[in-house]
Structures are given as structure tokens and as C-alpha cells.
Amino acid sequence: MVEIKRTHYARQLDDTLIGQQVRVGGWIEDVRDIGKLAFVTIRDVTGACQLIVTGSDNVQAAVQVPRQSAVVIAGTVQKSKAKDFPVEIKVTEFTILTRAASQLPIDPTGRVESAVDKRLDARALDLRTQKVAAIFKLRSAGLQVIRDTLHSEGFLEVNTPKIIGSASEGGANLFGFDYFGKRKAYLAQSPQLYKEQLTLGLDRVFEIGPYFRAENSHTVRHLTEFTSVDIEAAFLDYEDVMDIVEQVVRNVATEFQEKHKNDLQAAGAKEMPVSKIDRLTYEQCLEELAKEGEKLQFGDDLSDAALRKLGEIHSGFYFIMDWPLKLKPFYIHEKEDNPKLSKSFDLQYGYLELVSGGRRLHDPEKLKSRLAEQGLNPASFSEHLKAFDWGMPPHSGWGLGYDRLMMVLTGSQNVRDVVLYPRDTDRLTP
Ligand code: AMO
Fold it and tell me: Where are the domains of the chain?
């Protein structure tokens, strides 16, 4: 029986181990045959290490094994003359566990670049590329920071249904399907209504989960399934939850700079210190755009072109707040001193919208009349509306597109680069 359990990962090998027996598992990256011995580089998720293989059988095995095959090796650590490796392993046991095909669809060493579609078709292998693995290490680290930040602010993590019986935010962009031949069901486009209801008993909640949008937009920032971080908090106003999202983004960026420099570098990302984030009103944006020759009327949505122009003026993170009420969903609260405006905001990075949120209506009568004003039937929201008769507290929240945030923080140009198995208008596999 082959012992497959490692004693060390590649990154843990250093000169404190010289003279010791170690067992390392990974995949073959390179083999240099120099006759009586072979230099082999094997890589695992932490990095690479160099092996010295001697003895004609072992050298033969090493030379013949296809690159990317899974191996486990045992040997003694010794000092290395190679400039990239402080130590190397003189191999005593060399076991090929699974041979890789000799023709692979992509080159995971990153030396030969492949188009994104080709890489996505071979995603599991693509993750052996250091740059790609670094992105997903950062993605995982970011989620942990977000959870820690929100827990420390008193939020509970919750899980709400993704299969729902009626349209949650008004019906547009929903994927519907047949539910056991009995009725129609839908995939949740956001946890909006649930998270609002949960403030009634749990006060502050957050959810990190997949949401689904039947948007027929094939762009570098749209997916049909995306990951959102959603929060909702009772007894907070919209500017309070803007403070929280600012803190979340700053903490993630700071963690990346302080603890994940190597991954940022491998991902090809710049460090991105997040200082105080500017808060512009919608009307200020109209003025700035007018100065640039982009004339919009109050009430017009900010088009892609307008956002691109604003993104040139404000190249980093900035908020756009106090949007016209009529541009916002039915649950958004008006500004008390100017009911044409709303207590709402988006967090932008350049042209890219990362977050939207706001203060919500908590008065059931106001909510019903707003539904009617927006052409929605209050009767189809009866399940939701009943919670508003149970003492709904005032509340505010936001939804943050995690894939888009990762795009920004890892310097990726396409949202597909930061999602393991992206779903878009064309792609449903792997
Ligand atoms: P919204 O619809 O603006 O708001 O979505 C929130 C954030 O989710 C991200 N996002 C997407 N990311 C990738 N592909 C998509 N198709 C996609 N659609 C949205 C964006 C966006 O800013 N219920 C509200 C949030 C709230 O008010 O709490 C909502 O869903 O980054």
C-alpha cells in the first residue's frame, strides 16, 4: 500500500528540515533529465519544490511520466544549488498515483496562455495555474473577512430559500420552472424580502449566497448566477449601512495587502488602499456629467455611457446616493425632506456598480401604495406584507456583488476570471 499522507507541503520545506525524511504530494510540473539523475519540479497548492531523482528505475519513471500527473514522493531534504529553491529532496520513493493524459487542453504552468473559454472548459486543471489559484485563495480570504466584520457588528448569518413560489422583487429577470407539475417556481434573484422580514426577530442578518438573474446581457460583468453578500439591519438608516459596507470593503482590501501580498502579486493585482469613500448625490453626478457635456434630466437613469464618464472622473470607489425615488424598487424609503428623492445608494468602482442598498419602507400602508404605484399587485406580495403587520422595525440594508468586488480587488477584467464555474447566457458547463 502506498502511503499518500504528506508530511509537508512544498512551501513548508526549508533549511530547518535538512537531513530529515519528508513525504510530499503534488503534480509533476517539469522534468530535466541529465542522464544519471533527473531534476523534477513538483507543485502543490502552496508552491513548488525541486526533487533530485537518482537510480536508473526512478529516473526512467520520472522522465516518462506525463507532466501534471499526480505523484507522491518521499526522500531526504538537502541544501540546493538552484536559485529558486533553498532546499531540495533527494528522492528515495517515487510513486505515480494518477497519470495525466499526454495531451492536455491547456498549459497550467502559465507559459502558454489560453483564451478564457478554453480555460473555463478545463477549469479544474486551470486552477493549477498559480495566477488562477491566487484569485481563488483571495476570494476565500475575502469571504472570511466579510464574515468576521459582520459578526463583529452584531449580524447573524442566515440562509434563505433559493427556490421561491413568487417573484421577490417585482418579477423581472426571474428564472421560472415547473415544480412537480403542480405549480410554477422560481430561482431567487435576491434575498430581499426574506432579509427584511428577518429584521423583525433577528435584528441584524447577513447572507452570502448564489442568486439568479435571467438577464440576457453577455458582458464582462454580468452572470446569470452570481454570489451576493446581503445585509439587513433594524434601527439603522441608510447612511449607517453605507458605513458598514465601507468598512467591509476596506477590511477586505487591507487584509489582502497585509496578509496576502504573494497572492495579489501572483494574481497580477495592484494593492488598493481604501481610504474614506466619497459620497456623491445623484444630483451632483448630473452636474458633473453636464460639465462633461453629458446632459441628463432629473429622473433619468445613469446610462452605461454616463457611468463610464463618471468613472473617469472618480476612478476608484465612490457612492452615488439619493437617487430619484422613481428609479428605485418599491421597498425603498423616500427622503423625508424631499419625497422625490430616495434614501438609497450604489457603491461604484469607476463605471462598475458593486453594491446597491438603502433604507426600506417599514409602514405596511405606504408599502402597499408604493407597490400599486409601481404597477405591482399587493395581493401577490401578501406573504411578505403580513410580516409588516407584526411590528416591523425601520430597517436598511444592501446587496454587494461579491464577484464584482473580487474582479476589482484582483485586477481582473472579466467577472468569469473570479468565478469557478461561471454561468452566463451561453455557458452552463462544466
Ligand atoms: P441589485 O439588483 O442592484 O440589488 O444587486 C446587488 C448587486 O449584485 C450584483 N449583481 C450582479 N453581479 C453579477 N451579475 C449579475 N447579473 C448581477 N446582478 C446584480 C451587483 C449589484 O450591485 N435587493 C437589492 C439589494 C438591496 O437593496 O439590498 C438588489 O438585489 O454588484
Answer: 10-98, 124-418
